[in-house]
Amino acid sequence: MRKNDLRARNHAAYWAFLVHRLSGLALALFLPAHFWALGHAIQGEASLDGFLKLADNPLFKAGEWGLVILLSLHLVGGVRLLLIEFKPWSGLRKDWVALSLGAGLCTGLAFMLSLFS
Amino acid sequence: MSQSLSVVTQAKLWYWQRISAMVLALCVIVHLVGIIMAVRGGLSGAEVLARTQGNWLFGAFYAVFVLASTVHVPIGLMRIAEEWLGWRSRSVVIAAWLFAALLAFAGLRAVYAVVMPGGAA
User: Fold this and answer.
1) Quick one: DSSP state of residue A57?
2) The pTM is what?
3) How close does chain B come to A41, measured CA to CA in Å?
4) How many folded domains does chain A comprise?
5) Residue A90: helix, strand or coil by DSSP?
6) How many distinct structural domains can be found in chain B?
7) Which of chain B's ends, N or C, has fewer CB atoms near its CB within 10 Å?
């Protein structure tokens, strides 16, 4: 790796790119499983309940919590990209990088509060 | 982007990715608020279906959400496959189409499953 590459990677915008890509990848792979789980309702309420009972354990909850955080990171990171691409140029909008981390944190905390309420 | 796609197609994909992102941004905000409200006090099949069955507004919203995801997700996955795996042949486009078909089918099936009054069975 060239020295220049390392410098380019030690930058908030690079980390924002990596978070956006990894969160997008995780969400994309999760979606078919999510749809499959909801599809249980086709066999009626008991089938959906069966799945929800299976999912009612700390491991699943931790996974859901992670996904909710990834979704909010991807949301605000994506809005940042749309602003960069569609609004008049004003740099890499690093304030939105910070904002997406804040949104991820807030959503994660709100979800956890709801889980325990 | 894939070497098997023309520059015009690549530009169109970029555009579709952004337009779908704008729709998804609104959907995701509603979805996140819904999730946080729904998980309070735990989830049960009866509680979920009481909210969703026969709720056509809910169904229309989630159908739009599924279709926007169907556009957005395969384009993003194709980019990752190309940039990180070096998968740039025609087959990556076919794989993206197959993933889109999977999302559309499974997603709309899931919406149907929770919205149909009295259970879809």
Assistant:
1) S
2) 0.93
3) 5
4) 1
5) strand
6) 1
7) C
Alpha carbon of A117 to those of A50, A107, A110, B29: distances in Å? 22, 15, 11, 21
Domain coverage including residue B103: 7-115
Is A80 in contact with B5 (CB distance < 8 Å)? no
For residue B74, give both structure tokens. Answer: 């395969």
Q: Which domain holds residue A65?
A: 3-115
At B58, which CATH number? 1.20.1300
Residues 6+ apart with CB under 8 A from B114: A38, A41, A48, B48, B49, B52, B53
Its ipTM equals 0.93
Model confidence over B68-103: pLDDT tens digits? 999 999 999 999 999 999 999 999 999 999 999 999
First and final CA of chain B: distance in angstroms?
Answer: 43
Residues A49 and A9 sit within 8 Å (Cβ to Cβ): no
Of A32, A34, A71, the CB nearest to B28: A71
